[in-house]
Amino acid sequence: MITDGGDHPGSCPIPGRTFAxxxxxxxxxxxxxxxxxxxxxxxxxxxxxxxLQRGEAARVVLDVLAxxxxxxxxxxxxxxxxxxxRGLTNPAIFDRISEELPxxxxxxxxxxxxxxxxxxxx
Length: 122
Hints:
- This protein has helices at residues 29-33, 40-49, 54-69, 72-85, 90-100, 113-121.
- By secondary structure, it is mainly α.
- It has 6 helices and no strands.
């Protein structure tokens, strides 16, 4: 089980901050709920090979796992919001997302622009 090295699993080493939210749709929900083997060896490796403290290394591991646990639909919606916030127009946004999807760790099947729009707008 990944812990931060503190008294409470899931607490952040920075006072007043939480390690991972536990709400219906947080970034880490599936990662924390998944019954997978421990990643302590990876956390130990990060502590040995970087300047990260154990709690920070555990947070990095959870961040990476949550990133790769994101479904295609969640990725498309998140990237659309991020790119829209930067002022890009929908044609540019959907072109960029189409270019990015094949480079994901587990690439989804190719989606047409129409399919991408449906993911975002229903």
